[in-house]
Amino acid sequence: MAWLYEKSATWRKIVAVTRQSPLAMSIFGVSCFAVPYGMAKLAMWGTNPENDAAKERLLRERSSLSHQVLAKANRERLAVLLGELQRKEGGDERYAAALDGRSLGTHSLGTSTGARSIQPTLAASRQEAPSKDAP
């Protein structure tokens, strides 16, 4: 900074003004953050002018019923999990189960508590198994 102070008259003026006035120092400090931030936002907007909100709205309009049901179920599960965290219920058990690779599900109606994966039936597994007499 000493080199800049020695070589630039503008910098010397800035230092002199900000040394005298706390308001000038505040304005200078804010401008040191606001100007680069504004330039970065402008550069991002210029290089990616697409409107993400419009894209999101279009995707929501075109979504199928299964996507809407899945999104609603996920929102409900998240609400249950966040409610449990606020009430401090079941957090330790859920954490311990997650470390073991298990899922306890959410503790309300219509969620994954007690859910099982689809298991093949005994009859289907007998049909798929080759017989011992086959060559």
TrEMBL record:
Biased composition (Polar residues): 106-124
Protein name per UniProt: Uncharacterized protein
Organism phylogeny: Eukaryota, Viridiplantae, Chlorophyta, core chlorophytes, Trebouxiophyceae
Domain of life where this protein originates: Eukaryota
PROSITE patterns the record matches: PROKAR_LIPOPROTEIN
Region of interest: Disordered: 106-135
